[in-house]
Design goal:
Two copies of one chain form a homodimer.
Chain A (H helix, E strand, L loop, with lengths): L1 H18 L5 H12 L5 H12 L8 H21 L4 E2 L2 E2 L1 H4 L2 H20 L4 H26 L6 H27 L3 H28 L2 H4 L5 H4 L5 H10 L3 H12 L5 H17 L2 H22 L4 H15 L4
Antiparallel strand pairs in A: 1-2
Helix pairs in contact in A: 1-3, 2-6, 3-4, 3-8, 3-16, 4-6, 4-7, 4-8, 7-8, 8-9, 9-15, 13-14, 15-16
Chain lengths: 327, 327
């Protein structure tokens, strides 16, 4: 089922890409560029899976599925400008390959095209408010993220609220929209929303964890990009919180945070230094426990859903696999 | 009627502004800031006037009217980043007052909020496609505008297509959406679209003209900002075209275009120099004739519309006044 849907999404994205070959090319090429980069495409997959669970015709959910992927790409293109990110999925970001103006404008048109795809849905009048509410949340989440860059540290509650808006809201909306298109009633659509929200939270924490501890066993190396950028991930926020009671560790962490690596060996040193504090306060285990909690909440919502057990199992298994991923 | 609607729009914008006082303030304050700047607010006015012409309840068109003003502000905020514009309506632009990230993100949320307002309309399913199609056109127009900055000159046809997308499409959509909300049939809605398109074209050409010849009689001065920026307005494109047959004038214009003013007196000199070529090739008269042609086309569409003569007259008079404005 998963492979079949992934194949459908791939095919439909290719078809859609062909529509974006018109001039002005500077406006439409970045849409194809972002699609060609690939990525996990979990948002459209969740739309189709959620639709299928309720016995809906997934052909009728394809437009909305593509809308959510396009919206995701819009937010990536604009976020990358704001974050001054040079690379995304191993390719130069849109503002890097073209320029900021093109990235702003092609992002804008991606958002409008996403709306046009949502409008194609049979029950567009019910999907659109969910989509818009999600879009507002994603913007708010990004704004909090920008604001928090300027402060020394934030609380776990603030961090959860921020990723709830920026990341989990989009996964939640994918599930809810898919469920509505599949014919779910209000209560079931809400349960799918909760399932998506908690999955999204776990997914983001997993992302934070993988940046430091990912691929270690597999490749014997890690990237640590978040550590180098002093990015306020769950791991860092928690490590700051936990090291506060140990004056020596607290000062050590603060020193690493104010240390700007200039050479290759400085980078490795900073990653090693921060990681040793993470290990000392056992932040890996704490994060895994938190991921587990969100995962359990997600599963609890899924269990309450009125749908065939075998179909629910497909979604549950896929989510578990996603949260056990190592890259 | 005009004053009554203008008053309604002012009141409704104030009410809407109050909704945007929530955190994160960096995201929502720019929305209020743009509203507080004022501006002509002709787009929401056109929505209400078009609705009224067909005997519609204008209360039910208020949300869509606000959506079009909010969309207009979204496009101004993003365009100002791309154009690196420091001022707008005598105030610092959003990216200047805050920063580019805030301008990108608050622009994004303005676009989403505009969609949420359109969704409130009773016949949202008919309005939304018109709104989205317009939004795509405005993005395309801005992209052409950016592309044309890099070339030496463009044809009048290219210029008309560009302003047709960037400016006239938004006025056209305001009229069409208002008409649909007022109960116009397909044919009448299309006529209102044509009326709006031609009015929008005339309006933009008037804008080009006013930048060079505006306020002259009234204030005895002119700004000439477009001349200083070598902006490809109708006047410049036409002057390049017309001076081509006169080798001396052609070279003179080219010299002025490559002259970058550094001091106050250089600015005045360049404006005076370019303007004397404009006068020589009679570009003022040519532009006025072109404005007149678009205005006549607009009036012809309005005449074909099935609506009470007195109501049509209100719209016709307002448009004429708008196209005779001196600032």
């Amino acid at each position: 089922m998963i492979e079949k849907f992934q194949h459908t999404i791939k095919e439909e994205i290719e078809k859609l890409s062909a529509d974006y070959s018109l001039p002005p090319s500077e406006l439409y090429e970045p849409i194809r560029y972002m699609f060609d980069m690939g990525g996990k495409r979990i948002r459209p997959l969740f739309v189709l899976l959620a639709c299928d669970i309720y016995g809906g015709r997934t052909e009728e959910a394809v437009a909305a599925a593509l809308a959510l992927e396009l919206f995701h790409n819009f937010s990536l293109v604009h976020d990358d400008i704001m974050d001054n990110a040079p690379m995304r999925r191993n390719h130069p970001t849109v503002h890097q390959k073209w320029n900021s103006s093109t990235a702003i404008l092609s992002g804008d048109v991606m958002l409008v095209k996403a709306y046009q795809l949502v409008q194609k849905s049979k029950i567009a009048e019910r999907i659109l408010p969910v989509f818009s509410e999600m879009a507002v949340k994603v913007c708010e989440g990004q704004q909090w993220d920008l604001n928090y860059e300027k402060v020394k540290t934030i609380s776990v509650a603030q961090y959860f609220e921020m990723i709830g808006l920026k990341t989990a809201a989009l996964i939640a909306a994918s599930m809810k929209i898919g469920a509505l298109l599949g014919g779910a009633d209000k209560n079931n659509a809400e349960l799918m929303n909760e399932f998506g929200y908690n999955t999204g939270m776990a997914f983001q924490l997993q992302d934070d964890l993988l940046d430091v501890y990912g691929n270690e066993k597999k490749f014997g190396k890690q990237s640590g990009g978040d550590i180098i950028a002093n990015k306020k991930t769950y791991l860092l926020i928690k490590a700051i919180e936990l090291s506060a009671i140990n004056r020596y560790k607290k000062e050590e962490l603060e020193q690493w945070l104010s240390f700007v690596p200039k050479e290759e060996k400085d980078i490795a040193e900073k990653i090693h230094g921060v990681k040793s504090i993470y290990d000392f306060v056992k932040v890996k285990e704490i994060t895994e426990r938190e991921i587990n909690l969100f995962h359990k909440k997600a599963v609890a919502s899924l269990e309450k859903i009125s749908a065939p057990a075998d179909k629910k199992k497909v979604l549950a298994d896929f989510t578990s696999k996603l949260l056990l991923r190592e890259s």
